[in-house]
Each structure stands twice: as C-alpha cells, then as structure tokens.
Amino acid sequence: MVKKILNEPESDRLEASSIRALPVPSAASDSPTPKSFEHAMAELEQLVGQMEAGSLPLEASVTAYQRGAELVRFCNAQLERVDQQVKILEGGVLKPMLPGNHTTEGSE
Fold first, then answer.
1. CB-side exposure of 39: number of CA atoms within 13 Å?
2. Res. 5: pLDDT tops 60
3. Is 25 a domain residue?
4. The pTM is what?
5. 52 versus 95: which is more confidently predicted?
6. Whole-number Å distance between alpha carbons of 74 and 37
7. What secondary structure letter does DSSP report for 35?
8. Which domain holds residue 50?
9. Average of pLDDT values for 48-55?
10. Which of 55, 86, 20, 63 is nearest to 71 (CA)?
C-alpha cells in the first residue's frame, strides 16, 4: 500500500492541510474502573476479540485500543500489588512454585 501511495501522481495525494486528526476520546475519564482483575481480563478479551474480528469502525477501534491499554495498566498494577503481598508473606523472598506442588504447607 505504501508503494501504491508513493507511486500516485502528486495531484492524487492528499495535502497535509486537508487531513484532520482524529479526536482522542478521553477513555480514562469515561470508562469505569474494573471491579476486579477477572472483570478487567474478561473485558480485555472481549475487546481483543472485536478488534481481531475487524468488526469495529476506525474510531471505535481507537477507543477500544485505548480502553484495552487502560485495562492492561490496571491488570499490571493488580499483579504488582499481589506480587508485593506474596513477597511480604514469604519474608521478602519470592519462592518458585514447583510443578505438581499445588498444596499449601500443613494441608496434607
């Protein structure tokens, strides 16, 4: 597509002054904070599915991308918070979980 655009006569090209920037929706202020990590992941999966299907118009795709980025930040913050809690519970040392060892101490 880039080659096609570059090979077009200059008279067929759009001038920079005729191109308007898309309005940037304020996704952060309009979208509610997810109730939980699980809700955020479910919404993110739904957005990704819609975007991959190509069923969204351009403006909706931009809004969905922005909401997705917001959800990813929320999920990362939640994971960081839980990671810090685990480190505190384990005395500052994060112990690796061994495959097949899903029981907690004293539960056997």
1. 6
2. no
3. no
4. 0.57
5. 52
6. 8
7. S
8. 35-94
9. 92
10. 63
The residues near 62 (Cβ < 8 Å, ≥ 6 apart) are 22, 24, 25
92: left (phi over 0), alpha (psi -120 to 50) or beta: left
Q: How confident is the model at residue 22 (pLDDT cuts 50, 70, 90)?
A: very low
CA separation, residue 32 to residues 28, 67, 70 (Å)? 8, 10, 10
Q: How many domains does the chain have?
A: 1
Residue 65: what pLDDT?
95
Residue 66 has pLDDT above 60, yes or no: yes
CATH number for the domain spanning 87: value is 1.10.287.1040
CB atoms within 10 A of CB 56: 15
pLDDT at 19 over 90: no
DSSP per-residue string spanning 5-30: HHHS-GGGSPPGGGPPPPP---HHHH
- Please report whether residue 59 resides in a domain: yes
Q: At what angle do helices 37-53 and 58-89 cross, to 10 degrees?
A: 150
